[in-house]
Amino acid sequence: MKFGAIMQACRERAGLTQEQIADKLHKSRSCISKLENDMKTPDLPTMMRWADITGAREVVVSFMYGMDGISIMQNLMQVAGS
User: Fold this and answer.
1) Considering only CA atoms, which of 34, 37, 50 is closest in space to residue 5?
2) Residue 1 neighbours by CB under 8 Å, 6+ apart
3) pLDDT confidence band for 29 (50 / 70 / 90)
4) What are the structural domain ranges in the chain?
5) Which CATH architecture has domain 4-81?
6) What is the distance, to the nearest Å, from the Cα of residue 35 to the centroid of all Cα atoms in its chain?
7) pTM score over 0.85
8) How far from 48 is each of 30, 40, 44, 82, CA to CA, in Å?
9) What is the DSSP letter of 43?
10) Residue 80: pLDDT band by 50, 70, 90 thresholds?
11) What is the rounded CA–CA span in Å between residue 34 and residue 30?
């Protein structure tokens, strides 16, 4: 699994639209779409800022330390459904 789906789930969990996060990251909505669809790879500063904005630092750390994407997505969906 690529990182885009995880980035999208974090954004949605935070209740942000692509336009809102684009504004906070000083990027275009098109850029956000490309990141979430794995058409563009995020650089580390963008990933960390995304994590800060969405309150998902633990997600980025989990992914970077090798936790598989499926487990991360399942955990995000459980939190979002609560």
Assistant:
1) 37
2) 68, 69, 70, 73
3) very high
4) 4-81
5) Orthogonal Bundle (1.10)
6) 9
7) no
8) 19, 16, 6, 25
9) P
10) low
11) 6
